[in-house]
Amino acid sequence: MYVIDPFAISGILILITYLPLCALIFVKGPSKATRMYGLHLLAVSGWGLGSILLGTSNEPSTSLAIWKYSYACVLCIPVFFQHTVSKLLDNKNQLYIIFAYFQLTVFVTLSLSGHIVSNTGIHFKNLYYFAYSHTYLASFVCWVLIVIIAHVQLFQYHRHKHSVQHNKTLFWAALGFFGGIFNFLPVFGIRLYPFGNFLIPIYVFIITYAIFKYHLFEIKLVIKESITYSLLITIVSIFYVTCVVWMEKTIQSIVGYDSVYISIITAFLFGLLIIPLKNHLQKLIDKLFFKKSPNEIALENKQLLQQITQSEKYRTLATLASGIAHEIRNPLTIIKTFTEFLPQKHRDEEFVQKYSALTAKEVTRIEDLVNQLMSYSKPNPPQFRPTALRNLVIDSLDVLSSQLLSRKIRCRRQIDIGSETHVNVDPNQIHQVIFNIVLNAIEAMPSGGELIVSADLLSDPGGNRVRLSFRDSGPGIEPDHLKQIFDPFFTQKDFGTGLGLAIVQSIIENHNGRIIARSKVGEGTEMVIELPAD
Amino acid sequence: MTEKTRKILICDDEEGIRESLKLILEDHYDLILTADSEQCLDCLAHTPDVDLVMLDIKMPNKNGLETLKEIKARHSSQKVMMVTGYQSVELISELTELGAEGYVTKPFAKEELLLKVINTCG
């Protein structure tokens, strides 16, 4: 009779948990380190596939062939992990990596050529294992050694760089490797069922959680409610189908004949059980790894995103406040001088006329500045209105002039549009866009430099557009990073949220405009914004 | 009114500030008012015996610091006093490094300004 061993189920669990994460990392992974981590996950998936095949194979000779392939995958797992850690830490010492790849090449060759896996010695009911050899022991020692080195390096790195919570996550994540070790034991004559395979998917759950919550491996994503649910439903469904098949076979072996009714009744009975089971499993997973329900996590992430977005706004607001504090000094000077001279010159008509006009103008200026600050600090919904972009740009640059000056940055303005050119925008949001871009430029030039801000009108058959350009003389951005600068949470700075340019892009797109970033390493970066003009 | 023997060149892009400085200083000094760096440098090149240049720092195109550098490069003995809203230590030390004779921060009181100008150019 054809029987599926539970080892196959563990393989299915590994495959369905690792492959989506692997795909996610290859698509979203921003660096070589993360792509290397993707390879690590691919190697584990390869082992998962091997586990399925081993759990469903009832032939010793077939099992042996599968073991050769599977063990080659197992050997790759810690090496790719070690390489990931090395890339992540930007480790200049390549000795570990050279050793890891050298032993990998040797042992993979030995495994595929049958020098490690040579005969199936023991088995657990339907699961065939291979027998012990000295080369196997050597490969196992290297495997454990590389796992230990990688984790020690990773723990040390995170102890310095990240929070205790982050480290706890990594500790739990190491469970995956710990689980993996149980798979080696039967070969040493320890007749313990390799249940450790079931611990391996836990590892991926923790790593996924850490990626979403702590941006582990610099992968910065916002968790979506559906991801957790889909994953859980897939696992439960596979478990359900496996149980139905197993129960069906068992009942058929007892009753002694095949019947479609038996299959339907079995499926129905399991269907009744599976819903509470799914709910219990969901609660268990939530409690164990997420501490909260998926809905609460999704809500928490939404709130976190809002908080970060707001903190990004506060950062701009602080700049705006500091700029305004300076801007207010000029009108104050004028008003102060006027009041000082008023007692002695109040009969001088020319003085009174001139200074009354000037004071009124300066008071309005203060009022405008305060209003600007107030309206920016309030979380107002966007209010689109025809706005003279020229004035908006000049006002924003005036507010930022103290920052530019303190960083010894010369700001050249080439505003080739007049006050009559209007764009239908929310002035507050465009202020925020300009602040963000100019502040980024300022941060890119810590030792001074030049910022050229230009504005011109473009005419084409589709309608007029206003083009704003901000060109700095900073170090520039590497092409790989340039592609990601509008991605949420992507940042090259040691501070900041990495949301600034994502918000800028979203604002510009809401204005039916577009934003392009151009950069050349060593020459500088240019941000170009195009907005439809009236 | 004392006889005006000293000449001050004022450079500020804001009319209100120029007028305020004029109001405080006009009884004591001959004043030339300019609105940007270019005018200021041009005026300095064609006007002999300017005793003091009063320069705003925040000006469009060429700011006060760049203008100060150019003035010192062309007329090394020219006395320059900066008029600024910024009060950072870094800025003040930079002004000293660039050779400014003094600075006055906005908003200034008339006595304070006058005293600083008298101390700088007599």
What does this structure look like?
The complex is a heterodimer of chains A (534) and B (122). Chain A is α+β, with helices and mostly antiparallel strands and 534 residues long. Chain A has helices spanning 6-28, 32-56, 60-88, 95-112, 134-161, 164-173, 175-182, 199-214, 225-255, 260-290, 294-327, 329-345, 349-377, 389-406, 427-444, 479-482, 500-510, and strands at residues 120-124, 127-130, 385-388, 409-415, 422-425, 449-458, 465-472, 514-520, 524-532. Chain A is 66% helix and 11% strand. In chain A, helix 7 runs antiparallel to helix 8. Residues 220-226 of chain A have low confidence and may be disordered. With 122 residues, chain B is α/β, with parallel strands linked by helices. Chain B has a single domain (7-108), classed as Response regulator (Rossmann fold, 3-Layer(aba) Sandwich), CATH 3.40.50. In chain B, 44% of the residues lie in helices and 20% in strands. Chain B has helices at residues 15-25, 37-46, 64-74, 89-98, 110-121; strands at 7-11, 30-34, 52-56, 80-84, 102-105. A five-stranded parallel beta sheet of chain B has the order 2-1-3-4-5, sandwiched between helices. The interface between A and B is medium-sized, with 27 and 26 residues.
In short:
Chain A is α+β, with helices and mostly antiparallel strands.
Structural class of chain A: alpha+beta
The count of helical stretches of chain A stands at 17
Mean pLDDT of chain B: 88
Q: State which percent range the strand residues of chain B make up.
A: 15-25%
- Mean pLDDT across every amino acid position of chain A: 77
CATH fold node name of chain B:
Rossmann fold
Task: Please list the strands of the largest sheet of chain B in the order they lie side by side.
Answer: 2-1-3-4-5
At CATH's second level, what is the architecture of the largest domain in chain A? Up-down Bundle
Summarize the helices and strands and which ones pair or pack.
The complex is a heterodimer of chains A (534) and B (122).
Chain A: H1 6-28, H2 32-56, H3 60-88, H4 95-112, E1 120-124, E2 127-130, H5 134-161, H6 164-173, H7 175-182, H8 199-214, H9 225-255, H10 260-290, H11 294-327, H12 329-345, H13 349-377, E3 385-388, H14 389-406, E4 409-415, E5 422-425, H15 427-444, E6 449-458, E7 465-472, H16 479-482, H17 500-510, E8 514-520, E9 524-532
Parallel strand pairs in A: 4-6
Antiparallel strand pairs in A: 1-2, 3-5, 6-7, 7-9, 8-9
Helix pairs in contact in A: 1-2, 1-8, 1-9, 2-3, 3-4, 3-5, 4-5, 5-6, 6-8, 7-8, 9-10, 11-13, 11-14, 11-15, 12-13, 14-15, 15-17
Chain B: E1 7-11, H1 15-25, E2 30-34, H2 37-46, E3 52-56, H3 64-74, E4 80-84, H4 89-98, E5 102-105, H5 110-121
Helix pairs in contact in B: 2-3
